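User: Round two. Same drill as before: sequence, then structure, for each protein.

Assistant: Same drill it is. First protein:
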Amino acid sequence: MSQFSITRRVEFGDTDMAGIMHFANFFRFMEVAESDFLRARGLSVSWLEGNVKWGFPRVSATCDYKKPAKFSDVLTIEVVLEKLGKKSASYRFDFTNQRGESVAVGRMTSVFCRTTGPDQLESLEIPHDLRAKLEGPL
């Protein structure tokens, strides 16, 4: 399926007192990688069309840590669209450091939705044109 990667440096503010990237920041890096993956395909995580707000809110996110990422490490985050369901997109995020070592593997699932009122979301089938962009090459 579709693959994409970005690089991000671990900044001082991403780390704990030991200089190791705080676990929660892996989720922030995954979110940036997902947004860049979608943007590269002419899509977004959230957008307005007319008076309707559309988007792909997350319904699940996990991360398994294999090796510490440290201050000033440059991480490559490879995004793989693992599964495209009727209403959802599931991604895998493979983190490697500049030495090529596996640091972590994250997964996230997003569901295609529209806002139907204040704090009201309705999940919908992913339209053919969006599906083609998600699955297609860059």
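Second protein:
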Amino acid sequence: MFLLGERLERENRTVKAMIEIYCKKNHRSNIELCKECKEIYDYASYRITRCPHKDKKPACTKCEIHCFSRKMKDEIKKVMRFSGPRMLIYHPILSLFHYIDKLKEGSIKKKANSLEIP
């Protein structure tokens, strides 16, 4: 893997932590991710590393580019719905940064909307 910016590295760590929580609690996987969860992580990680916004990447929900396939988007949503609340317990710092990233003003979507001509 090549070097990513700080924001993308953190995003990758957050996604991995969420998938690990999900896998451990739902698939009883103690040592490493099961095959299904490893596939989700590999896909998400690949997409994060290829993000065209680089370190200025907004939270995915605020981005105008939807780079996940429908199937994988549904899978990662399921993981995030389950793991999101648990992240506060297991990874409070990553949770805080993720929350701050979601709240940041000037997201790509907002910038695109501000350029619209009335």
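The CA atoms of residues 65 and 109 lie 9 Å apart.

User: Perfect.
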